[in-house]
Specification:
4 helices; Porin; mainly beta; single chain
């Protein structure tokens, strides 16, 4: 057997789970007050989180403002599949993720320049999620070896801002978004028939970083003291990732054990509109509609720079991952009630549809339809504002059962629950 034929033979039968992504590519908002109001915040955006929600909101700032927000995103997932269908046999997989913490933040500073212009700078993590599984739970899928199964995506963004007050009731604003992304992935490399029997390929691992650029534009209108309308558009941002991949056993067969790789991932167009209304002085109500063009992530292509890896992955159709995602629309609602001049209670709800269909779901970054509830408390101490929030996301159960495991996804029963506590501090000076 020639070396080229051997490579093609390996690629034809290897069962490497390919890259999948989720609505977890984007966090569902930044800023504790906004989070506690269900992210129905586009028509408000009147605190330091304006750089994320609607840069036009900063035009109303009359003092220098600094704020910082921190969150701890804690996902809890389960995955179950039984291919044996024999009652006395243990299930193929019965797995739960251990407790994990994915931290995020937003820091922002704003300074009025005259009576109509405000400049600012925000530094944040607008995207971040992942999963980590106990490899022992997957040994029946990986030839009896407990390989690592984990994923982690993160984006670090720097956003300079300009906001202008065009009139007493109309403001506009914009940011430039400079994004640094990271993508880490571990999973079993599957097995291959080398002509003299099937052999394992070991642990697959990749680490990548990439830069991308985009912009956010916002408009805010307040035709009356008790009523406001907002519109925000965040342009797509394509991050060009560079990194390396490894297959731990591949060098045993006189093949390169690693390869540099390149991949482009687009964070899609986001358009959000909202309105807020104060029916009486102590109560504020808000509602938003957010649309995300997830169909831009129809497929993800990976370029392996090593010639052997490029041939292997192309022959096994592992260099192109078809996601077949659809655009999604979120509906959000929020409420805020002032107990007194210093203490405020908040609550919110939103529905976040899964962009991905059943055939492309994967345990490393699955997609879910979430129903999310949030609550919060705000405390004002002069020019100091403290906010505390808690969000709970319940993912709808997914059961994409099929007779065999497909290259594009993994059948089974999936569940996901996410708890997100957060805290913010803001000071005017």
């Amino acid at each position: 057997m020639s070396k080229k034929s051997l490579i093609i033979g390996i690629a034809a039968v290897m069962t490497l789970p390919t890259l999948a992504a989720a609505n977890g590519l984007n966090l569902n908002g930044l800023g504790t007050r906004a989070q506690a109001m269900g992210g129905a915040y586009v028509s408000l955006a009147n605190d330091f989180s304006a750089v994320f929600w609607n840069p036009a909101g900063a035009a109303g700032f009359r003092k220098d403002i600094f704020g910082f927000y921190a969150l701890d995103l804690m996902p809890r997932a389960t995955y179950f599949v039984d291919q044996t269908r024999i009652p006395e046999e243990p299930p193929t997989v019965d797995a739960k993720t251990p407790t994990a913490h994915y931290l995020g933040f937003l820091g922002a500073y704003y300074k009025p320049i005259g009576s109509k212009v405000v400049v600012g700078l925000g530094i944040s993590t607008p995207s971040g999620l992942g999963t980590k599984w106990d490899g022992q739970d997957f040994v029946r899928l990986s030839g009896g070896t407990a390989f690592d199964w984990s994923s982690k995506i993160g984006v670090f963004s720097v956003s300079p801002l300009v906001a202008v007050k065009l009139s007493d009731w109309l403001s506009v604003g914009a940011t430039l978004n400079v994004n640094l992304g990271t993508f880490n992935l571990k999973m079993p490399g599957g097995s291959a028939d080398l002509g003299e029997g099937t052999v394992p390929l070991g642990q697959y691992e990749e680490q990548m970083t990439g830069w991308g650029f985009g912009a956010t534009f916002g408009v805010m209108a307040k035709p009356a003291d008790s009523f406001a309308i907002g519109l925000t558009v965040r342009t797509p941002s394509t991050a060009s990732f560079k990194g390396a991949a490894n297959l731990s056993y591949l060098s045993m067969y006189d093949l390169p054990g690693s390869s540099e790789l390149r991949r482009k991932i687009t964070w899609p167009l986001w358009i959000a509109g909202g309105l807020s209304f104060r029916p009486f002085e102590r109560l504020l109500l808000s509602a938003d509609v957010h649309w995300t063009q997830w169909s831009k992530l129809d497929r993800i292509t990976t370029d392996y720079l090593d010639g052997v890896w490029a041939t292997l992955m192309a022959a096994g159709h592992k260099d192109v991952q078809v996601l077949d995602w659809k655009d999604a629309t979120q509906i959000r609602f929020g409420a805020e009630y002032m107990l007194n001049t210093t203490t405020t209670l908040r609550a919110g709800y939103y529905n976040d549809p899964a962009p991905g269909p059943d055939p492309t779901i994967n345990v490393l970054l699955p997609t879910y339809t979430y129903n999310a509830l949030s609550v919060g408390l705000g405390k004002t101490l002069g020019d100091l504002q403290l906010d505390f929030g808690l969000e709970y996301l319940a993912g709808n159960k997914r059961r994409p059962y099929q007779d065999v495991f497909l290259d594009s996804g993994m059948p089974g029963t999936y569940t996901m629950r996410i708890v997100v506590p957060s805290v913010s501090i803001q000071y005017k000076f």
